[in-house]
Amino acid sequence: MTASTTEQLNSVMTKAADTLTAATTDTSGLFSALVQYLEHNGNSGEHELRQNAQIHGLHDQVKQWEQERRPAATTEDVVTKLLPAHAIETLAKQSGLSEKATIKALTGVLPAACHKDHADGKSA
């Protein structure tokens, strides 16, 4: 089934907005929002991430990110397995990015945030 004209137009508009806002290159706001999510309410975001890592067999991946000085980017599939949809939606709103751009940017930001929390004495 093909996308409707409205869906196609929305996709084009989203891509244009993401380009204009430098969504693919400026991830500092997203990084801050992610760290806040992980640490908020007694680290409830971190707990959610760890539960999802266990469920999807990604516990070792998260541990590796914590240990590496500059962890490599991951895939969009891993991001969506580790972070629940409500978190991605919130991060998108807080950073001003589209959800698609948020997921794409999180491929680099999520590993770095896990390392930062671990380096700061926490264990994301």
Overview in brief:
This protein has 124 residues and is mainly alpha-helical. The protein is 74% helix and 0% strand. It starts with a helix and ends in a 5-residue tail after the last helix.
- Please tally the β strands and state the result: 0
The run of helices and strands is HHHHHH
Radius of gyration: 15 Å
- Report the structural category: mainly alpha
Poorly predicted residue ranges: none
What portion of residues belong to β-strands? under 5%
Query: Number of DSSP helices?
Result: 6
Helix proportion range: over 70%
* Biggest pleated-sheet summary: none
What does this structure look like?
The chain has about 120 residues and is mainly α. The protein has six helices and no strands. The chain starts with a helix and ends in a 5-residue tail after the last helix.
List its salient traits.
74% helix, 124 residues, single chain, mainly alpha, globular, 6 helices
Q: Topology, please?
A:
Blueprint: H1 5-20, H2 28-55, H3 59-67, H4 76-82, H5 85-95, H6 99-119
